[in-house]
Amino acid sequence: MSAKCRHLASRFGAVVLFALTCAGPSLGQLPRDRSSPLDTYRAMNSVAAQQTEWSIRVQLRAAERWIAKKATAKAVDCLNKAKAIVDGDTSLSKARHRTLLRVIDDRLRVARAPADSTDDGTLQKQAVAEQKRVTAEKKNADDKKLQQQLENIRALQKAGRNADARALTRTLAREYPGRREVQVAEQNADIMDQLVSARQFRQEKQHRYNAVMNDVERSALPPIGDIEFNVKYWKERVQKRAKNGVKYSPKELAILRALNSPITAKFKNSRFEDVLDFLRTITNVPIIADPDSLKKSEIEDETQVTLNAKGLSLRTVLRYILSPHGLTYVVKDEVIEIVTQEKAKRMLTTRAYPIAELVQGFGFEGMVFGPQVANFQMMQNVTKIIDMIQTSVDPDSWKVNGGLGTIHFNAPTMSLVITNSAEVQAAIGTGGLLGH
After folding, report:
1. DSSP symbol at 400
2. Domain total in the chain
3. Lesser CB count within 10 Å: N end or C end of the chain?
């Protein structure tokens, strides 16, 4: 047997051994499977490709750590090892070979580039300033449109067309959730409706008065200790939350974890697509760009990205890269999809989270406080919960911080109505701050 044949036989045997020991029982049963030799070869080739991708990912992560420490020689050494792995591999497709080599060449270019003053945070500040400018312009346009609609509502109410005014107010509430002007308009519409239905209100007055007096008498009962808890009530609440919780697939949970994982990478005049390929490779997470969104944002083949990320989460890195172009991302169908901010706004989800037991015990079954607890204290508790959510759960995603998400308290149902992305809802809901 020639030396070349012995080399090929040795490599084939190593791939088979790796597949049998690491890929699980499905490959361990290949000798007994009746599949064709071609199917067997494809299965082993797939295992070899996964091993190659893993080896390259290890070298890329190591190189980024050395780049962050300005250890150019060590970073170049890691990238050369990664390139050698790609050059010597036969399991990956030609297209994947080209993509990986392009990513590695860009990493080598960045690693060898001379250091400049913009690497110490200036670029991040410029990106944040640009994002604020774009957000301010969009906010001004939205404010002008909102003011015109509010003028239309007042004109309809003046003309006595309360039903039309109410319909327009509801439309604005859906388009601008959380805006104080819209809330005031809703309150005014409620007052108009209350005036029209005053007769029905008087009929119910006595019934409601009796109910309120019963609650007042119950609240006057002295508690046992500081707070009296109803164990049965709380048990039912926990079971209800568990039953109604949103379920996420393993892939979606993996994506949500990856968005919180730290990334250390340096990009200097790197192509937009090369940066996305690098992030896909180093995180092993599917990142897809919507072609229509890229076209609207004028993203071209030569669009460049410059960023020095040191231990930033993947979600923060994506925002730094996408915000200057009016883009953002959403988690949808088990992938991270890059879309325009307008399209992302239409893809947000809205959920209501009951918080009565968290903010007030006065007059509610399950927790009985003394009569000194007032509505003022309840609203203080609501404000604290909202502030906690907006500062601890993806702060940049909320409208008060320049994002798209909104949150407000609905007093009649004692619930927080939250509009945000699926990943933020996951952090707040099931297993999160307001989950069971």
Report:
1. G
2. 4
3. N
